[in-house]
Amino acid sequence: MLTASLVLIAALFAAGNVAAKSTKEISPYPLGERSVFSDRAIEDRIKPVGSVCVEGEECGTAAPAGEEVASGPRSGDAVYNASCAACHATGAAGAPKTGDKAAWAPRIAQGNATLVKHAIDGLNAMPPKGMCMTCSDDEIKAAVEYMVSESK
Ligand code: HEC
Fold first, then answer.
1. Does the beta carbon of 132 sit less than 6 angstroms from any atom of ligand 1?
2. Distance between CA 43 and CA 37 in Å, rounded?
3. CA–CA gap between residue 133 and residue 12 (Å, rounded)
4. Pocket test for ligand 1, best of 121, 126, 141 (most atoms within 8 A of CB)
5. Which tens digit of pLDDT belongs to each residue from 67-98?
6. Residue nearest to atom 4 of ligand 1 (CA)
């Protein structure tokens, strides 16, 4: 009888010990944030693996270096400077130089539609889209219009 009560007391004691565990020992998170379905746990799972740190700035606030996100079509002179000037500013590969009125007069006489078509499809040593494969047709058209306006 005595042994039985001792065992019972010991068992109660042990049970009490578990219940007495502070919640901090079970999980470092407050009650609402413990579940694997909590916002805290979900954010933890999907957060980026790394963050970019720039000296003098708080970690993770700097945007990672990368291609700038295009915000709408580029202007004619921007496309020209990036993709066309290499040949058309210097006359490389026999390209008609921008501003060379004599070289451009007979080309301009073909009409804008033809010039734009040749710029998009290519013409002899003129590569399609001036090799700007990310340029839209409208951006190429704007670049042609810029070149033409500079060469009249
Ligand atoms: C690799 C050099 C090169 C690059 C880059 C280049 N061009 Fe040209 N372009 C040429 C050459 C060469 C010609 C002359 C082709 C011919 O008449 O045989 C030409 C001709 C043209 C013509 C005249 C076409 C015609 O019908 O007479 C236009 C318009 C033109 N280029 C627009 C552009 C534009 C716009 C870009 C940039 C998006 C560009 N080019 C980039 C070499 C280049």
1. yes
2. 10
3. 76
4. 126
5. 555 568 999 999 999 999 999 999 999 999 99
6. 130
